[in-house]
């Protein structure tokens, strides 16, 4: 016995038999019940109610002898088990007055003239039953996609899942603090691995265990359930310094895990530490196993990024205070003849630091806005995953010359049919054949909206790269100042000149907004040089242009 019923009412046994035969393909999901009189139909409805079933569709002949099929359909809304049923009127010939009466009463969904053809009946039944099923969110829609309109059902299922994701994400954001959120993620992960932990993802490490090593590849994401992990960085003398400590609810190795880059720091357990160790395959398996875990983990990941962003802003504020202190020192030292050179040096450092600090502040403001746009994204899950790939590519993309970008955009325009979309696709690195076929042409109709959403991912990756470049520039400036004090010289090593020029252009992005920048890069190999000294040359040339 199924949850839903299809009721066929006609006083002609031949018609009833034909309906049963034509609707047989729906019988494994819908009970097909028949009646030849309205009295029989009402008795069937009583039995249906006793069986806790509901009527999904009623196919009713108009001419039932002394009874009217139209009147029967109009009365259906008075019964709980039939009030939402889809109604189909069967006519020997088109009877406009009867049809208009049913339409005006709001109880007619379709009118079918006898005799019918199967190619007309079956699509109509599938369409109407799909509309009925989609009004019942308590049932498994995907089960009915076997015989009904699977595209509509699949789209509705995806929309419902995305709605639940957004609802849970917003609810988590508003109601759960960082500690509680970490506990929920930890509980969900432990619940998953309690049933299946063949890879021994849940582990306990003693103090001193190395999770990640600076400069080495890392294929794992470490979720700290309990304990403490210290992160270390090495200086020029290869001396290791502790930079931060993280505890329960934090992630270690996240950036290298997501981007495939080498580890930025060395992670070492400081106490007995419980972790959950995830590789790419296991991470995907876990995220796909529980609908509730994905919004929780996404929220946790964004909060981790946000906390790091807040830390970056605090560092920027300290740098601003340092700049002010240097400026004050400059005014004191300028009056002392013996310290005049040092005063000039401080002023130069303050000037050099101001540009990257300003760029970081602008990037931080843009990131705040972009993160909000990403959390409100209306993209499908597949396009969100593609957006993450675009973000990762933007974080370590190499610049194109203006001529190369124009040439690629012109070539791509003939296939996309839109110049702006072609330029955006080239900018995002989506001009390769596989991206063109699988990503762009496959959804050409919705491409402008999708590209607009993808642009948020691209801008986020681009600004993350810009912030990283500027932060590194600040570190290099500080290192240069220390080297100057120690009379040390910068060592020469292989470097890409174009990257240095591009990084300088990023720092001066605000100053160059009202100017046209034309890039005509030659295909040069890496050369042995002093990159910091060269970058200071590019900075002086652009600043004084």
Automatic annotation (TrEMBL):
Top EC class of this enzyme: transferase
Record field: catalytic activity: ATP + protein L-histidine = ADP + protein N-phospho-L-histidine
EC number: 2.7.13.3
4-aspartylphosphate found at: 61
Keywords: Phosphoprotein
Top-rank taxon: Bacteria
A Pfam match: cNMP_binding
GO terms assigned for molecular function: phosphorelay sensor kinase activity
SUPFAM superfamilies membership: cAMP-binding domain-like, CheY-like, Homodimeric domain of signal transducing histidine kinase
Ranges of residues in domain Response regulatory: 5-129
Name recorded for this polypeptide: histidine kinase
Organism (species): Photobacterium damselae subsp. damselae
């Amino acid at each position: 016995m199924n949850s839903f019923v299809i009721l066929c009412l006609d006083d002609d046994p031949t018609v009833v038999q034909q309906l049963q035969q034509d609707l047989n393909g729906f019988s494994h999901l819908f009970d097909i019940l028949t009646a030849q009189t309205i009295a029989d139909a009402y008795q069937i409805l009583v039995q249906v109610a006793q069986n806790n079933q509901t009527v999904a569709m009623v196919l009713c002949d108009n001419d039932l002898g002394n009874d009217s099929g139209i009147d029967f359909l109009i009365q259906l809304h008075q019964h709980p088990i039939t009030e939402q049923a889809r109604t189909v009127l069967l006519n020997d010939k088109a009877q406009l007055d009867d049809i208009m009466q049913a339409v005006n009463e709001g109880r007619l969904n379709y009118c079918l003239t006898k005799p019918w053809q199967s190619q007309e009946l079956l699509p109509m039944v599938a369409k109407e039953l799909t509309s009925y099923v989609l009004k019942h969110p308590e049932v498994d829609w995907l089960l009915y996609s076997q015989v009904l309109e699977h595209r509509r059902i699949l789209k509705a299922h995806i929309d419902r899942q995305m709605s639940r994701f957004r609802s849970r994400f917003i609810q988590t954001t508003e109601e759960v603090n960082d500690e509680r959120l970490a506990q929920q993620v930890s509980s969900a992960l432990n619940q998953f691995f309690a049933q299946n932990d063949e890879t021994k993802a849940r582990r306990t490490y003693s103090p001193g265990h190395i999770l990640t090593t600076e400069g080495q590849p890392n294929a794992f994401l470490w979720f700290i359930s309990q304990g403490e992990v210290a992160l270390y960085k090495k200086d020029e003398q290869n001396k290791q310094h502790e930079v931060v400590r993280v505890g329960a609810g934090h992630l270690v190795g996240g950036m290298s895990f997501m981007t495939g880059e080498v580890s930025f720091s060395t992670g070492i357990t400081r106490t007995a530490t419980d972790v959950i160790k995830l590789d790419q395959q296991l991470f995907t398996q876990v995220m796909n196993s529980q609908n509730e875990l994905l919004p929780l983990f996404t929220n946790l990941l964004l909060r981790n990024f946000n906390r790091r962003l807040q830390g970056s802003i605090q560092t920027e504020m300290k740098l601003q205070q340092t700049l002010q202190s240097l400026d004050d020192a400059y005014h004191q030292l300028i009056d002392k003849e013996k310290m005049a050179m040092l005063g000039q040096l401080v002023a130069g450092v303050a000037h050099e630091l101001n540009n990257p600090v300003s760029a970081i502040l602008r990037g931080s403001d843009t990131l705040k806005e972009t993160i909000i746009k990403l959390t409100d994204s209306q993209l499908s899950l597949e396009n969100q995953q593609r957006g993450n790939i675009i973000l990762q590519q933007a974080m370590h993309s190499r610049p194109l010359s203006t001529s190369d970008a124009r040439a690629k955009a012109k070539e791509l325009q003939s296939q996309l049919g839109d110049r702006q979309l072609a330029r955006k696709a080239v900018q995002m690195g989506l001009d390769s054949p596989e991206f063109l076929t699988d990503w762009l042409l496959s959804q050409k109709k919705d491409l402008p909206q999708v590209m607009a959403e993808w642009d948020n991912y691209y801008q986020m990756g681009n600004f993350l790269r810009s912030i990283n470049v500027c932060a590194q520039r600040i570190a290099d400036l500080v290192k240069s100042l220390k080297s100057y004090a120690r009379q040390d010289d910068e060592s020469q090593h292989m470097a890409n000149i174009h990257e240095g020029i591009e990084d300088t252009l990023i720092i001066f992005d605000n100053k160059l907004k009202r100017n046209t920048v034309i890039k005509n890069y030659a295909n040069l190999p890496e050369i042995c040089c002093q990159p910091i000294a060269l970058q200071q040359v590019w900075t002086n040339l652009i600043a004084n242009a």
